[in-house]
Specification:
about 250 residues, alpha/beta, four-stranded parallel β-sheet, 11 helices, 8 strands, globular
């Protein structure tokens, strides 16, 4: 069973353990509406569906409570990393919201068994922040449910240096790829793939857990391909939000 299927199963167990909340048509919760439903927390949780809405309408600041290295290796698009740990995080959040303790905040970390977001949530609640919620399902479930993931330059460099099985995918037009790309990169022009003109990307089909790093002329082009890949079986997909030139300068320098 792949990691994605394991996580789907895990979230399904979470979902069925929650109280049934019928909608107007008697519908119960689905996997995207599930939360961990932790007892005794000082801050409420949001579901994957709710977090997607929050990111879309920018109704809250989304904070990744993990270390900077973890953030660089893969984070939710639009999230902010505080860059500090422990008690320093409280002051960092206060500066981020410019003293507005009613500002909407959503915290997340590495999922159900990581308590980083809950600890910060408790500190913020004790500090009289009044609109703090947590996506306690975190990065593992976000990925499993097809959520796009951003990898920063430092994370890409670590992958290039240490993971020889990782696949780099160039989302730029074929004519730009032909003029030069990263070593052993695979060409998958975002416009051609998403329009159906290119039917198949040359990706490994013996291991859907491989790291796949998408890059393009800019972050928007890479994100376009990432959204397409969210509906494919490869689950460990991430995209670089900068330009190809920036990436090549870091990875190709002698």
């Amino acid at each position: 069973m792949s990691l994605r299927n394991i996580l789907y199963f895990a979230v399904a167990l979470v979902a069925v353990s929650l109280p049934i909340c019928p909608g107007a048509a008697g519908e119960s919760l689905n996997i995207n509406q599930a939360t961990l439903a932790e007892a005794g927390a000082k801050t409420p949780e949001v579901s994957t569906e709710s977090l997607r809405d929050i990111l879309s309408n920018k109704s809250a600041i989304v904070i990744d409570t993990r270390s900077t290295a973890e953030f660089e290796a893969g984070h939710i698009p639009g999230a902010i990393n505080l860059g500090v740990a422990g008690s320093d995080q409280l002051e960092a959040v206060q500066q981020l919201v410019k003293g507005d303790k009613a500002k909407g905040i959503v915290l997340y970390c590495n999922g159900p068994f990581c308590q980083a977001s809950r600890r910060l949530g408790d500190r913020l609640a004790d500090g009289r922040f009044t609109n703090v919620r947590r996506y306690q399902l975190g990065m593992p479930v976000w990925r499993a449910l097809g959520g796009p993931t951003v990898v920063e330059l430092g994370g890409v460099k670590r992958i290039a240096d240490g993971d020889w099985l990782a696949v780099f995918v160039d989302a730029r037009p074929a004519e730009l790829f032909a003029k030069g790309s990263l070593p052993q990169a695979v060409s998958a022009p975002a416009d051609d793939v998403t329009s159906g003109r290119v039917k198949k990307i040359d990706l490994p089909e013996d291991d859907f857990n491989r790291r796949i790093v998408l890059f393009g002329r800019d972050g928007a082009e890479a994100r376009k391909l990432a959204d397409y890949m969210a509906k494919r079986p490869w689950h460990n997909v991430m995209y670089f939000p900068g330009s190809y030139e920036e990436l090549a300068a870091k990875l190709l320098k002698k």
